[in-house]
Amino acid sequence: MKRRLLFGLLIPSATVLTLAAVTEAALRVAFVNSLDFGVEMWKYAAQLKQPVSNPRIRFVHRPNGHARLMRVDVSINGQGLRDREYSLQKPPGAYRIMMLGDSTTFGWGVPIAETTAKHLERDLNGAGGRQVEVLNAGVGNYNTVQEVSSYVERGRLFRPDLVILVYFINDAEPTPADQSGWLRNRSYFLAFALSRYDALLRLTGGRPGWRTYYDSLYSDSQPGWRDAAGAIADLARQTRRDGASLLVAILPELHQINGDYPFTRAHAMVRAAAEAAGAPVVELIDGLQGHGPESELWVTPLDDHPNGKANALVAAQLRAWVLAHEAAP
C-alpha cells in the first residue's frame, strides 16, 4: 500500500519536473536573442549586477561583465562602468564629464557608441579645444539616491570637472530591496512568468497604469520623492566640495511628449529642488519634441527607452549647454 502511494506521488512529481525542465530549456532558446523587455531586464540583473553592503546603493555592475541584451553586446569595464577603461587620474589638460543616471543613461537597447555619453563625447571633441572625456556612470534601475550615493562613494574619485545628473520620472521610487536569489537569478521560466504576471495585473487594473503610477510618486508626503530631492541637494554640496560643476538634465517620459505632456507638475518639482540646491537645469523635452511620432525615439515599439536618435538629440542639448556655460571645453 505504501509503495503504491509513493509511486502515485512520484509520477506526477516527475511529470511536473520534466515539464518545468523542458519549458526552461525552450525559454532559454527562445530568448537567447530577444527584444522582450521583461526577460531582457532580468538577464541584465542576473548577469551584470552584484549586491553591495551599502543600503543606499544596494547593487552595482559586476566589473568586467559581459552580456547580450536586447540584441546588443553590453560590456562593463573593470571600474563597473559601461564604458572604456579610465584611470582615476585625468590625462593632462583633459576636461572630464561624469554622467549619472539609470537605464536611460546606461544606454538600454543601444550599442555603446549610440549612448548619450558617447554622442556627447564625440560632439564636444569635434568642437575643438581641450580633450574631453565623458564617463557613463548610468546603472539600470538606479534611483536618484543610488546615483548620488554611488558618486559619493566611487564616482568622485575620477575627479570630474562637470557632473550631469540625468533625472528620469521614476527616479522618485524608493530604493529597491535586494531581490537576488539562487533560483531568481537562474530561472528563465520564473523571470518569464513574473513579467507576464505583472503585465496581466496592469492590463486588468490590478496595478496602476504608467501615467497614474508616475504621477503618484510626486508628493511631499511620498518618502521616495523626499529622498530624491534630498539626494539632489547632497549632490550639489558634494560637487561644490569637489570643485566640480553640476547640471541637472530632466529627461521626459517618452510616451507622450508632443502636445500636452502629462508630467509637467513632476518636472516643476524636480526643477525647484535642483534650483533650491543651486544647480542649473536643462529640460530635455525641448529638444526632443517635433522629431516625428514619439515611437520613432523608442528602442522598440513596446519599450520607450531612448534609442540612438533620441540619445543624439539629448547629447546635442547637453553639448550646447556645456559650450555656453563651461569655459574649459
Index terms:
alpha/beta; Rossmann fold; 5-stranded parallel β-sheet; 43% helix
Which SSEs are present, and which pair or pack?
Blueprint lengths: L1 H29 L6 H12 E3 L7 E3 L4 E4 L2 E4 L19 E6 L2 H4 L9 H11 L5 E5 L7 H10 L8 E6 L20 H17 L5 H7 L6 H20 L2 E6 L13 H13 L4 E3 L14 E3 L2 E4 L1 H18 L4
Parallel strand pairs: 5-6, 5-7, 7-8, 8-9
Antiparallel strand pairs: 1-2, 3-4, 10-11
What does this entry look like structurally?
This protein is 43% helix and 14% strand. Strands 6-5-7-8-9 form a five-stranded parallel sheet, sandwiched between helices. It has a two-stranded antiparallel sheet with strand order 1-2. Strands 3-4 form a two-stranded antiparallel sheet. It contains ten helices and eleven strands. The chain is of the alpha/beta class. The mean pLDDT is 88. Helix 4 (116-126) packs across helix 10, helix 5 (144-153) runs parallel beside helix 8 (223-242) and helix 8 runs parallel beside helix 9 (264-276). It folds into two domains: 1-30; 35-325, SGNH hydrolase (Rossmann fold, 3-Layer(aba) Sandwich). It is globular, with a radius of gyration of 22 Å.
